[in-house]
């Protein structure tokens, strides 16, 4: 046994589908005496409807699930309640960690009408790490997905591989859904083939609702209707922003979409930075659902390559407040900025962006604009922006770093104060050493100082 940071006695628990025995007690469980089902570790019993908290994984424990296929016929029938919802909470410094050892495939074939298979409902300090889910082998339902975090806090979902499916309903369909949750981390997941919602936004692999303090980083998302959709997420204090960073997204209908962000009118909303979106319909999208959002959003240092639309501004711009689009590279796109159905972009600030090989730099209110026309008619991209080849190392080959002669070098402003302020490079690779997409080097997100007030 080990002592956690809070002094809790913790242990490693083992699940082995081929060699385990669910009659083993919690105290007796060990590497040589494992349980046979994941439900035994999560519920403390073999019956989802008869949990036993004293026999389930406790705060500070790590559940090691050995390689194999784990299938269940037990379900919840609720779109917000995962089958393997832990019966216990973790604690600060002593989470409950459920970790796959090797390839662990999770499946469900329930008699209910469908539900997520892993995640949390009304839990805190839980880590799900390293599982494989093919949604064709999971009974999901409309307006949810195979992984759901609901009403929870301090949850980590990492290192998952989720292959989605094309569903036959028109409601939301996601691989990972976060709702009514706070202070959680969605990182280093590989998500693909998530399709079938009524539109490309609602078919995003990650969908976020009414949550704050969520960090989505180092995910690789591709071949789906959408990537990441902040559909209904309220901002909060400086430490409770929505953060979208270091993600690699491609072959999508839409990459990253900002919807109801900061609807509550607080001072902090979302930061979307150092992401790469390529070969997709739209790179980064804003949707104005109402008269008070999206607001307080910084979209900085992203690289948008070979998308039909680079930045897409949707109707409802009367609600936009303090939206900043800066230090981005928009390359090889039909439209650099698409706002065909809007007339007012005065609450958005574009600056220090570089555009290259765009068919139309900006289309606003059914009129096309060159960079100079965009600047003179809308007072946008007046500071530090240019139309020039950013000279990436090999964008077509997937290397989006800046070459030594790039005009994007030191052409940006560090408004997020990530590097102490001052001039920084444009695009996702500010230093050139960043890992964009899935990484094995997982560290807690650093504390980012508050940005200076924008003039």
Please describe the biggest sheet, giving its number of strands, its sense, and whether it closes into a barrel. 12 strands, parallel
**Based on CA inertia axes, which overall geometry fits?**
elongated
Q: Would you count the extended β strands for me?
A: 35
Stretches with pLDDT under 50, minimum 5 residues: 1-7, 442-455
Helix content: under 10%
Number of helices: 2
Structural class: mainly beta
Q: List the quaternary state of the chains.
A: single chain
Give the mean pLDDT: 91
Strand content: 35-45%
Q: How far from one another are the termini?
A: 56 Å
- Main-sheet strand order equals 3-4-5-7-10-13-16-18-20-23-26-28
Radius of gyration: 23 Å
Task: Please give a handful of descriptors for the protein shown.
2 helices; Pectin_lyas_fold; Right handed beta helix domain-containing protein; disordered N terminus; 455 residues; 12-stranded parallel sheet; Pectin_lyase_fold/virulence; mainly beta; PbH1; 6-stranded parallel β-barrel; 3% helix
Notes on the protein architecture:
This protein has a domain at 164-424. Strand 32 (392-394) and strand 33 (399-402) form a beta hairpin. It is built from two helices and 35 strands. The longest helix is centred in the C-terminal third of the chain and has 8 residues, at 371-378. The strands form five sheets. It has a twelve-stranded parallel beta sheet with strand order 3-4-5-7-10-13-16-18-20-23-26-28, with no helix packed on it. Helices cover 3% and strands 42% of the residues. It comes from Woeseia oceani. This is Right handed beta helix domain-containing protein. InterPro entries: PbH1, Pectin_lyas_fold, Pectin_lyase_fold/virulence.
């Amino acid at each position: 046994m080990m002592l956690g940071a809070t002094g809790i006695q913790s242990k490693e628990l083992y699940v082995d589908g081929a060699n385990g025995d669910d009659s083993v007690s919690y105290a007796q469980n060990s590497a040589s005496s494992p349980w046979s089902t994941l439900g035994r570790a999560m519920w403390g019993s073999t019956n989802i409807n008869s949990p036993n908290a004293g026999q389930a994984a406790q705060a500070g424990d790590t559940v090691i699930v050995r390689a194999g296929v784990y299938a269940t016929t037990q379900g919840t029938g609720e779109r917000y309640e995962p089958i393997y919802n832990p019966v216990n909470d973790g604690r600060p410094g002593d989470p409950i960690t459920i970790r796959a050892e090797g390839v662990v495939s999770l499946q469900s074939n329930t008699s209910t009408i469908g539900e997520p298979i892993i995640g949390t409902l009304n839990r805190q300090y839980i880590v799900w790490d390293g599982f494989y889910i093919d949604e064709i082998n999971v009974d999901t339902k409309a307006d949810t997905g195979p992984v759901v975090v609901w009403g929870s806090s301090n949850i980590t979902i990492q290192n998952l591989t989720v292959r989605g499916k094309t569903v036959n309903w028109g409601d939301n369909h996601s691989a990972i859904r976060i709702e009514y949750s706070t202070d959680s981390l969605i990182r280093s997941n590989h998500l693909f083939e998530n399709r079938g919602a009524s539109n490309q936004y609602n078919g995003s692999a990650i969908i976020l609702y009414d949550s704050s303090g969520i960090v989505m980083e180092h995910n690789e998302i591709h071949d789906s209707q959408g990537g990441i959709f902040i559909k209904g997420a309220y901002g909060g204090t400086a430490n409770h922003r929505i953060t979208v960073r270091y993600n690699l997204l491609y072959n999508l209908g839409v990459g990253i979409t900002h919807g109801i962000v900061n609807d509550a009118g607080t001072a902090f909303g979302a930061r979307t930075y150092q992401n790469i979106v390529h070969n997709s319909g739209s790179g980064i999208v804003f949707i104005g659902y109402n008269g008070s959002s999206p607001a307080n959003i910084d979209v900085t240092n992203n690289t948008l390559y070979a998308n039909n639309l680079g930045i897409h501004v949707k109707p409802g711009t009367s609600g936009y407040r303090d939206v900043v689009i800066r230090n981005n590279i928009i390359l090889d796109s039909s439209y650099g900025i698409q706002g065909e159905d809007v007339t007012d972009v005065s609450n958005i600030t574009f600056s220090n962006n570089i555009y290259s090989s765009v068919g139309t730099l900006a289309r606003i209110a059914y009129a096309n604009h060159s960079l100079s026309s965009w600047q003179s008619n809308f007072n946008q991209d007046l500071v530090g922006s240019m139309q020039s080849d950013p000279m990436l190392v090999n964008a077509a080959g997937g290397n989006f770093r800046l070459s030594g002669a790039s005009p994007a070098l030191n052409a940006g402003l560090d408004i997020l104060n990530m590097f102490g302020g001052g001039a920084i490079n444009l695009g996702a690779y500010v230093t050139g050493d960043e890992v964009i997409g899935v990484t094995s080097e997982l560290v807690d997100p650093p504390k980012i100082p508050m940005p200076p007030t924008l003039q």
